Amino acid sequence: MRILIAPDKFKGSLGAHEVGAALAAGVREALPAAEVEICPLADGGEGTAEVIRLALGGERISCPVHDARGRPVEAGYGWVPASRRAVMEMSAAAGLFRLQPNERDPLTASTFGVGEMLRCAAARGAEEITLGLGGSATNDGGFGLARALGFQFFTAAGRELSGAVPDLLDLARIAVPNEPSLPRVVAACDVRNPLLGPTGATRTFGAQKGATPKQTEILERALRRLADVAAETFGSDHRATAGAGAAGGLGFGLLTFCGATVRSGFEVVAELIGLREKITRADVVITGEGKLDRQTLSGKAPAGVARLARAAGKRVFAIVGQAEGKEPGELFDAVIALNDTSPSYRDTEKLLRERARELALQLSDRQSSDPKEGADPGVSRTSVDQ
Description:
Blueprint: E1 2-5, H1 16-30, E2 35-38, H2 48-56, E3 59-66, E4 72-80, E5 85-89, H3 91-94, H4 112-124, E6 128-132, H5 143-148, E7 152-155, E8 171-175, E9 184-189, H6 201-205, H7 213-234, H8 246-258, E10 261-264, H9 265-273, H10 275-281, E11 284-287, E12 291-292, H11 301-311, E13 315-320, E14 322-323, E15 334-337, H12 345-369, E16 383-385
Parallel strand pairs: 1-2, 1-11, 5-6, 6-9, 9-10, 11-13, 12-14, 13-15, 15-16
Antiparallel strand pairs: 3-4, 4-5, 7-8
Helix pairs in contact: 1-12, 2-9
């Protein structure tokens, strides 16, 4: 039996590679003769760059940048010499993880460091940059990114804007730099939010970055002004483009100032690591993530894995930390939930190994009683809470 293990991370507990190793260990305990392939996944959020870098055999590069509060830090990204591809995450520079809770301030948080990362990769000779948009501390619409790339922002009186996001309320003109353009930029994200409105960057994600209701309205107006002047400057308007609201509107900034393409993070990762081909070779696919819920259906890795597996006629199972509702289970032969509230990494790893072993034993028993290829392993298509 050929088993592909293709999980995402268990956020706050284990990375995708660690999850994959734990699941594989459990499967091998029950099915020592099985051919097990581990294929860690990501969907544009944190961990995306590392998953791609390791899959493609890339190097890890470090470059000096500024974090969301303007402090100098070292940001790492992946470099694949063979294809001259840089793989990075905006969070390496402007991520929420770099800030203490009392430092969160979306009015002043900047994506300037993300622009510095892009310049670093361009200087290395990158022909394509893949940029994950998860985990941002910012809500500046790419204002900081653009300034790092040489764009200038002016008021009607000719004063240059280089400070907080609310300064954009006075924006009247954008000056375009006379510098060589960046290589092709592909922004990978797991959301499809537009820049503005009730489902936009600010009203959907602003609160988790520290925005108060009053600040939310200021930020919304500032980003609307940025979009208005950008449309006048470039003759195109990306405010309603799916994914423009990702990472506090960085999706919009990349589309507008870099000519980037915004794509589903899962699709980008799946293509680069050859996931479809790996699924074709497998008899059974096991995926998973920390929490399976309705959002899973909108672009998260496990749903993407399940759809590819279904299209290839393969059985597919999800082993997850928690399962919310039964709707996601319709994609899978079974959803097996740990329901583990323990903060211990070791406990989560142990539970993953145990659940994978139990699933593998059921697969083995069913195969022994009915060896016909493609037989149902006897696990229901509903959430199985252990």
